[in-house]
Amino acid sequence: YVSGLGEGKAMYLLFVKAETLTNSGIPVRSVLTSYYKSPHFLHRKHDLYNNYTSPDEVILCPDSQQSMYCQLLCGLVERQHVLRLGAVFASAFLRSISFLEQHWCDLVNDIRIGKLNSNVTNTECRLAMEGFLALPNPELADELEEICGHGPWKGILGRLWPNVKYIEAVLTGTMAQYIPMLEFYSGGRIPLVCTMYASSESYFGVNLRPLCKPTDVSYTILPNMAYFEFIPLEDGLRVTDDEEVVGNDKLVSLVDVKVGCYYELVVTTFSGLYRYRVGDVLQVTGFYNRVPQFKFICRRNVILSIDTDKTNEEDLHNSVTRAKKILEDRNHILLEYTSYPDTSTVPGHYVLFWEIKSTCEGVKPLDPQLLESCCISVEESLDYIYRRCRAHDKSVGPLEIRVVEAGAFDALMDLLVSQGSSINQYKTPRCIESGLALKLLNSKVTASFFSPRDPEWTV
Ligand code: AMP
Question: What positions does the domain GH3 C-terminal occupy (predicted)?
């Protein structure tokens, strides 16, 4: 689809995640970390079409800030040769561009004087970077300074990397929330390409029309990757809950799915998962030969996700239930809550809207420390991946509680009922999407509080 890709390089920003050991000493790693550390990746043959600007040593650096700094530096030094930009997930790519926005002065200075910033302390990174900064390069530094320091950041990607042909990242599912920001930095002129649908359990599918719009992406299942079966979702999007046992007779095989219908994905993998419910909801859009093609609809139950974190309603509810005890000990009760993933800043963060009532006489202002303790309590109860994203990867920002005025949730109900919700069966949505509901709640915010520190997280 894109010619000439073998004549240049890809600035793909790839990162390893922190890992841990089981009691018997087996490493527990995310699938991509495992891949980057494997001989398949490290001893790969030279391939003109997969020539990355980032050296392997830099990709493998356990400190994501140092890794990001060095990877951006390599990409800037090689800016005329870079034909593709990307990362696995759109969130990681944007985080790196925002990092560039904050650190471009240091990066330009390193290029100008031909010396790596002393904040990069990882020995392997320093060694790997020697070749990139062998000599001072004031001409390149002047060009970069002109672009980063004197022009707008809208459309900057095309100016920094003038030969870039596309940007690649996962842009479907929860990652779709990052498309507007990517369009801002690309100026809407660089195609956004989303090629793969995969997971820790198995590789699933590829997009055979890589230049289509991100909203039109369908994945063609690769039938040799695992044994694929599907639970039909009979009422359109009604999804069976995790605990519900699905009879084997309900499962539909790969060749029997029907165009337009929704299914939950079930895999049996070569590594031994048997009829495992991945949790993804897919809709059939067509067939390639006899293989079905699917649109990714959503991850079952996930209501909040900024990066690789996936928080479901139950996790959120349990965390809020724990935190609200702190309020109750101080004569306040939590009347209602909902949440929202705020990605208007990078990194994005979870926002909770809380309506609080005092059980004491008289109106006293809320103690900021009390609400900050609630923020941290919610975060401490969220799962390992969330806490790793917050404390280690820094890919999720501090959680925020926005306190709303009395009656805000009644107003929310009125709005949703006026939009068609049944008044009898109305339940406060535990997550709201952008639009009128968000606007309404934001207009009722009386105070906002952030977690004062990272949640506990240990490898
Ligand atoms: P993990 O469990 O961390 O391996 O993440 C795998 C999950 O990420 C999948 O089951 C999907 O929910 C999500 N995912 C992976 N690729 C895509 C994609 N191309 N579009 C939307 N969601 C994706």
Answer: 314-434
